[in-house]
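Quick review question:
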């Protein structure tokens, strides 16, 4: 760019000097030189304008590239900068403010849910309930993902996708209640409960046990959810058509499975057949 400007000044000077000389002497040869200088002057002007345009475009492209690089670096930094779990925007849980037990609307997920406001301090949202054999739990992947049954019915499954969205919007705990045919009541609580999204096959995170049931669900920590139509290559999936977090290693498929056929609901070392089961979650207060 500087060289072009310099050439422009030189030619302009020669051109002007040539104008002064023209008044002294005008010949055919000199007029030819004058014409060539004029053409060269015009050509150089055009090239200078073109160079300025190219330079401006180059600067714009460079700035655009820099902006893209900065944007990508910022995204990468946000993805990797901390080890704390990233929570989505708060999903309103009506059980946090309900005054009594009953069915409430969960508008963020377009779901009706049952809130338990008496047992274990209240504030619990029911995600699974079994009380008889009227509703089959031998369902497809889509059914377990979206949910089935009703929160005010005798049998109910909230859905894996709502479970994921709720447990990703904050830190949740889990409570499981069981009653056997002798009317004996037992429970298990887990201080940490999370369900991953569908791309991770709704992987289960559960730990921090307390309660009167044997601690069996902790052995399902980091297991994936299976249904008979989702991955029927697994031995355990072939054996048990209901959906649950199953292991694919060893001879034991599960330590507990609350979604089996009603007569086969299972919690290892829990004696007598279960007559009722309930799974509930609550946002942690600490």
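Suggested answer, residue by residue:
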């Amino acid at each position: 760019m500087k060289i072009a400007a310099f050439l422009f000044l030189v030619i302009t000077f020669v051109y002007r000097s040539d104008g002064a000389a023209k008044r002294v002497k005008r010949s055919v040869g000199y007029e030819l030189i004058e014409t060539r200088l004029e053409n060269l002057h015009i050509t150089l002007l055009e090239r200078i304008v073109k160079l300025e345009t190219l330079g401006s475009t180059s600067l714009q492209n460079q700035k655009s590239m820099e902006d893209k690089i900065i944007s990508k670096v910022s995204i990468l930094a946000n993805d990797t900068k901390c080890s704390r779990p990233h929570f989505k925007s708060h999903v309103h849980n009506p059980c946090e403010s309900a005054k009594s037990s009953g069915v409430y609307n969960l508008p963020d997920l377009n779901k009706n849910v049952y809130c338990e406001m008496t047992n274990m301090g209240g504030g619990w949202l029911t995600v699974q309930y079994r009380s008889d054999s009227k509703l089959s739990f031998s369902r497809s992947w889509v059914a377990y993902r979206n949910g089935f049954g009703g929160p005010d019915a005798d049998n109910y499954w909230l859905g894996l996708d709502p479970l994921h969205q709720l447990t990703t919007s904050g830190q949740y705990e889990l409570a499981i209640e069981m009653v056997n045919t002798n009317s004996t009541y037992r429970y298990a609580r887990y201080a940490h409960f999370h369900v991953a999204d569908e791309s991770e096959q709704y992987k289960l995170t559960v730990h921090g046990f307390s309660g009167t049931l044997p601690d069996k669900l902790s052995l399902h920590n980091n297991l994936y959810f299976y249904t008979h139509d989702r991955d029927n290559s697994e031995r355990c999936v072939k054996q048990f058509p209901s959906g649950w977090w199953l292991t694919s290693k060893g001879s034991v498929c599960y330590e507990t499975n609350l979604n089996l056929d009603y007569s086969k609901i299972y919690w290892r070392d829990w004696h007598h057949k279960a007559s009722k089961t309930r799974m509930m979650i609550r946002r942690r207060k600490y």
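Why it works: Residues 17 and 243 are 95 Å apart (CA to CA). The longest helix spans residues 28-80.
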